[in-house]
């Protein structure tokens, strides 16, 4: 097999495309011949030694991928060789093959494209858990999505619309705002050029959004929270801007609002049945055309550094996918 190997997590430049022994699956694992893998923000952090999970060295980055099972461990009964699957293994995806625990694998229904499947589990699993489980989003409520043109942002627009909510998309350029409206957002705010709070007040008739979906953090967090509706829910999804904000605790008090943490990875580990049910619902929605990953571009796996560079320059709209 071939893989991008991280032997020293000092950044993307230290990754090496190498030939390695093809691994054999352990008793509870399957081996996947990878057709496509997507690039997520944690994949950037993990090779910079900045992510909360620090795998033992050396490791192959790439948290999320899709392909065909070509070997099955002795204890695995529900999966078989030749089956198309997607997987969220945390690492291992930027390669031609990977072994992954069988419970982290999602069988793909017929017609589920590998490129889409590779860009699906993390962003859509996170967002379904955030909006429908943690925020208990109801039909007719208004959701503000920050960083709305990114991977989780575009997923949030689609899932909120599938739940019959109204969506306001916040993004940093007119082009990104246009993309958000194209995939279903009811309105958009360019927070690089518009008065963010004033525009949000205008779009919600002064009420504010019921749910704020925030994968960005940084200096957007406080003005967004100051605009939240009574009994609003502020979803802490991530910190793509880099800075972890500190909100004054009088704000949730005055708004009767909640600050709600979203940690999908631990949810999937602690509540596997609930996570499996959510992924099954998402697969149905995909088949019905309600959700579909927005793919910025696909690149051959050996061009991973180019993909990382594009992600680091904040140019990406949706997801980047690497293919074998």
Automatic annotation (TrEMBL):
Domain of life of the source: Bacteria
MF (Gene Ontology): oxidoreductase activity; zinc ion binding
Pfam family, one: ADH_zinc_N
Gene3D superfamilies in alphabetical order: Medium-chain alcohol dehydrogenases, catalytic domain, NAD(P)-binding Rossmann-like Domain
CDD domains linked: QOR1
SMART domains given in the database record: PKS_ER
InterPro entries found in the cross-reference section: ADH-like_C, ADH-like_N, ER, GroES-like_sf, NAD(P)-bd_dom_sf, Quin_OxRdtase/zeta-crystal_CS, Zn-ADH-like_protein
Domain annotation Enoyl reductase (ER): ranges: 11-322
Name of the protein described by the UniProt record: NADPH:quinone oxidoreductase family protein
Source organism (scientific name): Piscinibacter koreensis
Species lineage: Bacteria, Pseudomonadati, Pseudomonadota, Betaproteobacteria, Burkholderiales
């Amino acid at each position: 097999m071939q893989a991008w190997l991280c032997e020293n997590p000092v950044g993307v430049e230290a990754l090496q495309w190498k030939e390695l022994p093809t691994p054999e699956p352990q008793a509870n694992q399957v081996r996947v011949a990878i057709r496509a893998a997507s690039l997520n923000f944690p994949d950037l952090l993990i090779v910079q030694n900045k992510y909360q999970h620090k795998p033992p060295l050396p490791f192959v980055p790439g948290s999320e991928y899709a392909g065909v099972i070509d070997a099955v461990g002795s204890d695995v009964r529900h999966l078989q060789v030749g089956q198309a699957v997607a997987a969220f293994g945390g690492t291992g995806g930027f390669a031609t093959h990977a072994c992954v625990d069988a419970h982290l694998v999602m069988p793909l229904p017929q017609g589920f494209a590998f490129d889409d499947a590779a860009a699906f589990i993390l962003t859509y699993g996170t967002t379904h858990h955030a909006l429908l489980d943690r925020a208990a989003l109801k039909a007719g409520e208004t959701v503000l999505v920050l960083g709305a043109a990114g991977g989780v942002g575009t997923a949030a627009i689609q899932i909120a619309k599938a739940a019959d909510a109204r969506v306001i998309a916040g993004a940093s350029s007119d082009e990104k705002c246009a993309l958000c409206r194209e995939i279903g957002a009811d309105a958009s705010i360019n927070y690089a050029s518009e008065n963010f709070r004033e525009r949000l007040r205008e779009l919600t008739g002064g009420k504010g959004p019921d749910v704020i979906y925030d994968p960005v953090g940084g200096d957007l967090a406080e003005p967004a929270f100051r605009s939240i509706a009574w009994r609003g829910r502020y979803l802490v999804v991530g910190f793509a801007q880099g800075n972890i904000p500190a909100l004054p605790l009088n704000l949730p008090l005055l708004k009767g609002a909640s600050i709600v943490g979203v940690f999908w990875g631990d949810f999937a580990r602690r509540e596997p049945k609930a996570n499996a049910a959510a992924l099954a619902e998402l697969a149905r929605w995909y088949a019905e055309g309600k959700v579909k990953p927005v793919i910025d571009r696909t690149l051959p796996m050996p061009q991973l550094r180019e993909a990382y560079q594009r992600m680091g320059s904040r140019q990406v709209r949706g997801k980047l996918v690497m293919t074998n």
